[in-house]
Amino acid sequence: MLKKGLKNWKVIKREVGGVLFKIGFFIFLSLLLSSELLAETWKAKQLRLAWEQAAWRFGPLKIQPAILIRDAGYDSNIYYHPQPVSDFWLTAGPAVDAYLMVKSRIIIHAFESPQYVFFFKTKRERTWNNYFNGDVSLSLNRFLLTVGGSLNNARERWNTEIDIRPRRKEESAFVSLLYQRSYRVSFEITTRKTDYDYESIEYGSININERLSHLENYLSGKFYYRLNPRIQFFLEGEWGEYDFKNPNSLGDSKSQTLFTGFEFSPAGRIRGRIRIGYKKFDTLASEMPDFKGLVGDTSVSWELFRPLVLRGSYRRDVNFSIWSRNPFYVGKSWSAGYSFYFLRKKFRLDYTFSQLKNDYPLGEVPDSEPRHDDYTLNSVAIYYRIKKTVGLGITAGSWTRKINVLNWDADRKFVGLNLTYDF
What we know:
18-stranded antiparallel barrel
């Protein structure tokens, strides 16, 4: 075990050294090309604003506390099975964002949120989850160097394919460098490594740990062009490697993706992000299928006029599968809805309609029909404004699933209480 640890440390040390050399060369080259100095980059301004707006101050340390309540209520089918099991449940806990400013150049940020999941009847589903992430940013006029990571340990329903809640430990680290050439033009390079470790639990005939535990490595480069103070265009290239811990796994693969889109300021009438791209996903096992096609990660809202906000989202990407012969499936979802404010914006009424499809490239056995999953979700909610951006609401909805090759169709109804910090 010690020899393996030392070997892994040497590999990590070599990778980090290579990344730092590239970043140092990029800084040197950029300095040679620079002709004017900026006070700080736009991302550094965002960090500084978050530090300034935090509620509690202890010298250079500022803290923004919060209480999270997610869907405290009733679910008619907690396992999403054809034979439903109903229960009352609650997910709640504190959260805190902490910011430390050091000599106006170094900004240290940390987020911590322990959350308890409580089921009234189904005791085996009760658990503690914990979410932590942090980063250190060094602001040098045109440059912002950020080093950070996360450590999450939670039992959740991680995707629509797995109906149970396996525990997953997620450890990640990243290094990014932002260079702002001018008010309008900036560039960013990022390297990121994530370790996903699932608990050893059987789901049907599959062990989830053996099938899904893996490492992900990414290198991305991004070009930004600011159209105006509230809209920014970007072009992004991303390279990914996926290394599964089980030597018999068919999931080892690589990907190359080109994204483009727009990012919108939270202060504007249009908020969120449009991100659409083209992905080439290659499985390393020669007998397994590959994927080439459209991907997306988009979520936007538009304040059409004062009391009405329209919302929409679109997501499409490759997801690793535990089912049968398929190393992956392509998940596609879209949603549309609105938020209507009334009684002097003290109340907000929400409606959302969503559809999701999972498409598998291979059938259960050779020459059989591939699997396709179809999901439909309708939900309504009403919120009461407690503070300027905080609302307490009640949500109710229905969910249905249809699968073409399995007798696994299901439906559920739910109603719950939740707290939102985006009123």
